């Protein structure tokens, strides 16, 4: 098929902004296109050589390179190309104008062109153009730039003016057609008489419009129905709507609903086929190489021979195993040495869905079945297990679980329908999943002084010392110490090693009578040792007793991401931060979440 036919369609597409007309033009083109090149035609219209998720190289020619290639192709100086470019503002138009000038001396620019030979253009085929572009993209490494420019210039030399215009725009990633995936799907539906929703579903589970077009052209609609999730090919993720009113959430999700921790990490689609693992990001980019540790976990923990599961990769504190905020994952990504990064920023995986298992398309199954299958195929461990979830029947349960999630370092919950229609809707944002995030948060701007009232035994690297300490604030009214948080971060190795010795003199066989705690510590202490603590936020907590019932019935205030700053031997337990002060801090710093992100918080 001649490339000029594609160029003509690109011209039509550029000239209209009507989606209907664009789809009609595309349908005409697709009908004319032989099935063996229809995938290439679709990619060209998308302005790409292959779906992004394939992770293949980009063309890699910058603006200056385009200018040089045009100059080489047309035998005109770079200065001349630049001059025309500056007057038209687009290299695509510039190459077209220069070419027309050569063809037709009346165009006016001819006076500026050195070699006006009156070229005879070759009839380029789609295959030739596509494969030359692929060659350009594939050239990598030293000396590749010159080779790329030579290949491009040889293509431009034989292209006609319109073809050259679109080739240049393609190279620059600026086709600017205003044609999205939806319009291409409309065009395909109309060209092949295929139901539009079928094409869309196929695309959502096999996001390669070129391949889908080819399948339609070669095998027809029937085969489209048979498309199912395939290990190695990412599915477009199902997305959640957002709501902040628990009643509305349960009305939409239905009762009972599954509430799951909403982890603050990176979404990962993990594919397994035998001993091969792929990990894809939310944007369908392959990120396997960034997570060799997750690859190892997946190989060990996914029992099915073939599977596609979805989950969140979350950074954890290497010392305590507690979740760390999303930014920590970004630090990890910035590290050059991946092995160093693995040690410094370890991760865990929490799985929340299962899209395919050993030949079965799980996307068509309802959530309870998908969850059950997930449980069946995962050999759970601390680092690779199912997301924490709870079946909720009313708003009170939902709210308590929400606070628990926030306290555990999560952003909130994702509430999921368990109903008869709760299939996995790839690529769709709907009410089957509802994110329930905090509206307000209270950033901690000051440190607090708290007393140690209990401790938890350390595991792994911390065996023999304490993994975390239970801390309390003082309530002068009742003369009791009320728990605020568990802290396990911020200690030096020496401080950690010395913890048991330091606290031993205060050790008790049971909880101290003036300590008010719902949490069962492994070891109890008399409130005596004081420390200064910092944290990310003050947050409502169903677990801690500090300020319980003061902001909200049945819940207290706790510190999110607490961190040890230093010991305060100069302070007695009764001189520490009081529960009243914590309550005041909580209200003083309370900001609407969307506003805090822009830094213009408004006090409530
Ligand atoms: N249990 C869970 N179930 C589903 N998604 C979860 C879960 N825990 C964490 N997530 C993450 O929450 C994301 C959805 O909410 P969030 O608002 O963070 O993402 P976004 O990128 O801003 O929005 P969205 O992904 O909805 O476009 C999911 O894409 C997923 O990465």
Automatic annotation (TrEMBL):
Xref: CDD domains: Adenylation_DNA_ligase_Arch_LigB (cd07901), OBF_DNA_ligase_I (cd07969)
Binding site for ATP: 260, 267, 282, 312, 352, 429, 435
Pfam families, sorted: DNA_ligase_A_C, DNA_ligase_A_M, DNA_ligase_A_N
Domain ATP-dependent DNA ligase family profile: 340-475
Alphabetically ordered keywords of this record: ATP-binding, Cell cycle, Cell division, DNA damage, DNA recombination, DNA repair, DNA replication, Ligase, Magnesium, Metal-binding, Nucleotide-binding
Keyword flag Cell membrane: no
Required co-factors: Mg(2+); Mn(2+)
Reaction(s) catalysed by this chain's protein: ATP + (deoxyribonucleotide)n-3'-hydroxyl + 5'-phospho-(deoxyribonucleotide)m = (deoxyribonucleotide)n+m + AMP + diphosphate; ADP + (deoxyribonucleotide)n-3'-hydroxyl + 5'-phospho-(deoxyribonucleotide)m = (deoxyribonucleotide)n+m + AMP + phosphate; GTP + (deoxyribonucleotide)n-3'-hydroxyl + 5'-phospho-(deoxyribonucleotide)m = (deoxyribonucleotide)n+m + GMP + diphosphate
GO MF annotation list: ATP binding; DNA binding; DNA ligase (ATP) activity; metal ion binding
Active-site annotation: 262 (n6-amp-lysine intermediate)
Domain of life of the organism encoding this protein: Archaea
EC number(s) per entry: 6.5.1.1
Swiss-Prot/TrEMBL GO biological process terms: cell division; DNA biosynthetic process; DNA recombination; DNA repair; lagging strand elongation
Cited InterPro entries: ATP-dep_DNA_ligase (IPR050191), DNA_ligae_ATP-dep_bac/arc (IPR022865), DNA_ligase_ATP-dep (IPR000977), DNA_ligase_ATP-dep_C (IPR012309), DNA_ligase_ATP-dep_cent (IPR012310), DNA_ligase_ATP-dep_CS (IPR016059), DNA_ligase_ATP-dep_N (IPR012308), DNA_ligase_N_sf (IPR036599)
Keyword match Cell cycle: yes
Record-linked PANTHER family: DNA LIGASE 1, DNA LIGASE 1/3 FAMILY MEMBER
Protein family according to the UniProt entry: Belongs to the ATP-dependent DNA ligase family.
Primary role: DNA ligase that seals nicks in double-stranded DNA during DNA replication, DNA recombination and DNA repair.
Protein name, entry field: DNA ligase
Origin species: Ignisphaera aggregans (strain DSM 17230 / JCM 13409 / AQ1.S1)
Name of the coding gene: lig
């Amino acid at each position: 098929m001649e490339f000029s036919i594609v160029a003509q369609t690109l011209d039509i597409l550029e000239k209209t902004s009507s989606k209907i007309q664009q789809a009609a033009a595309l349908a005409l083109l697709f009908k004319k296109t032989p099935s063996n090149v229809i995938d290439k035609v679709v990619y060209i219209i998308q302005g790409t050589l292959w779906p992004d998720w394939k992770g293949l190289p980009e063309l890699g020619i910058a603006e200056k390179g385009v200018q040089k290639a045009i100059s080489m192709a047309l035998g005109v100086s770079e200065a001349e190309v630049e001059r025309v470019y500056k007057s038209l503002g687009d290299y695509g138009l510039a190459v077209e104008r220069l070419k027309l000038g050569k063809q037709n001396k009346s165009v006016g620019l001819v006076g500026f062109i050195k070699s006006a030979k009156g070229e005879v253009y070759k009839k380029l085929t789609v295959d030739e153009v596509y494969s030359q572009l692929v060659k350009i993209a594939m050239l990598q490494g030293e000396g590749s730039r010159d080779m790329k420019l030579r290949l491009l210039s040889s293509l431009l030399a034989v292209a006609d003016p319109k073809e050259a215009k679109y080739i240049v725009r393609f190279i620059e990633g600026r086709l600017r057609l205003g044609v999205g995936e939806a319009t291409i799907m409309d065009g395909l539906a109309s060209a092949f008489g295929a139901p539009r929703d079928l094409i869309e579903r196929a695309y959502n589970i096999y996001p390669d419009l070129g391949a889908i077009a080819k399948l339609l052209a070669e095998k027809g609609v029937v085969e489209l129905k048979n498309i199912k999730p395939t290990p190695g090919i990412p599915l477009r993720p199902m997305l959640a709507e957002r709501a902040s009113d628990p009643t509305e959430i349960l009305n939409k999700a239905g009762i009972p609903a599954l509430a799951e921790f909403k982890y603050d990490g990176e979404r990962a689609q993990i594919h397994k086929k035998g001993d091969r693992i792929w990990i894809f990001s939310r944007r369908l980019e392959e990120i396997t190489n960034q997570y060799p540790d997750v690859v190892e976990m997946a190989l060990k923990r996914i029992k099915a021979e073939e599977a596609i599961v979805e989950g969140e990769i979350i950074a954890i504190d290497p010392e305590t195993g507690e979740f760390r905020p999303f930014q920590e994952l970004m630090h990890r990504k910035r590290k050059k040495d991946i092995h160093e990064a693995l040690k410094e920023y370890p991760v865990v995986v929490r799985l929340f869905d299962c899209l395919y298992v050993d030949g079965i398309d799980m996307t068509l199954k309802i959530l309870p079945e998908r969850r059950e299958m997930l449980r069946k195929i995962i050999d759970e461990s601390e680092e690779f297990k199912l997301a924490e979830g709870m079946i909720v029947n009313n708003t009170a349960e939902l709210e308590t679980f929400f606070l628990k999630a926030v306290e555990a370092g999560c952003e909130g919950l994702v509430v999921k329908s368990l109903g008869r229609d709760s299939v996995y809707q790839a690529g769709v944002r709907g009410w089957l999943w509802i994110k329930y995030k905090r509206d307000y948060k209270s950033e901690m701007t000051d440190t607090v002084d708290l007393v140690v009232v209990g401790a938890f035994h350390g595991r792994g690297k911390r065996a023999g010392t304490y993994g975390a300490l239970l801390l309390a604030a003082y309530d002068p009214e009742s003369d009791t110490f009320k728990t605020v948080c568990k802290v396990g971060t911020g200690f030096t190795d020496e401080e950690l090693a010395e913890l048991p010795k330091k606290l031993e003199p205060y050790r008790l066989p049971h909880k101290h009578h003036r300590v008010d705690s719902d949490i069962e510590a492994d070891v109890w202490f008399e409130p005596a040792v004081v420390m200064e603590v910092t944290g990310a936020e003050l947050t409502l907590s169903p677990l801690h007793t500090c300020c319980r019932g003061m902001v909200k019935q049945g819940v207290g205030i706790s510190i999110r991401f607490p961190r040890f700053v230093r010991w305060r031997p100069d302070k007695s337990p009764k001189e520490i931060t009081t529960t009243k002060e914590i309550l005041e801090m909580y209200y003083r710093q309370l900001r609407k979440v969307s506003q805090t992100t822009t830094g213009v918080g408004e006090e409530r």
